[in-house]
Amino acid sequence: MFEKKQIIYSETQGVCQVENIVSLSASRRERKIPYYVLRPVFDKSRVSYIPVENHQVKLRELFTREEAEALQGTEEMKKDEKLRQAVEYVLGKKGGIGWHSSSHSRQYINLYLEIKNLKERQRNSSMTKAGTVLRIL
């Protein structure tokens, strides 16, 4: 069984993070079945619900570095885009850890600036509140 927040490989979705494990049922009368909530690393807009038991989709732990190196350059990897992304993710290449496209770089920069501005506003807000308390005293 996979754990919440674990990065895994799905043959249909590619590299995914297990966002959650939830219990769902079609109706109140049926027993609840545990499902993995998977979010593909390379397409955050998608989400998949895969039964924890008896699933037909092949799920596995993400490749080790050694496995990824062995798969690198194989015909199988060249034919399968999701497999290629997974290998590159593990090895830290294009589309993987440590690599960011220009659009990803802009997103990280924008996120950084948003956080910085938020911290600045919080600091100013704290100073204003502290100043108000001092004026009252």
Protein model, in words:
With 137 residues, the protein is α+β, with helices and mostly antiparallel strands. The protein is built from four helices and five strands. A hairpin with a 3-residue loop joins β1 and β2. α1 crosses α3. The protein is flat, with a radius of gyration of 22 Å. The protein starts with 6 loop residues before the first strand and ends with a helix. The C terminus is likely disordered.
Strand order of the largest sheet: 4-3-2-1-5
Instruction: Let me know the number of strands.
Output: 5
Overall spatial form: flat
The major pleated sheet works out as: 5 strands, antiparallel
Low-confidence stretches: 94-105, 132-137
Radius of gyration: 22 Å
Helix/strand order:
EEEEEHHHH
Integer average pLDDT: 80
Which class of secondary structure composition applies to the elements?
alpha+beta
Q: How much helix is in the residues?
A: 40-55%
Distance between the termini: 59 Å
Count the DSSP helices. Answer: 4
The fraction of residues in strands falls at 15-25%
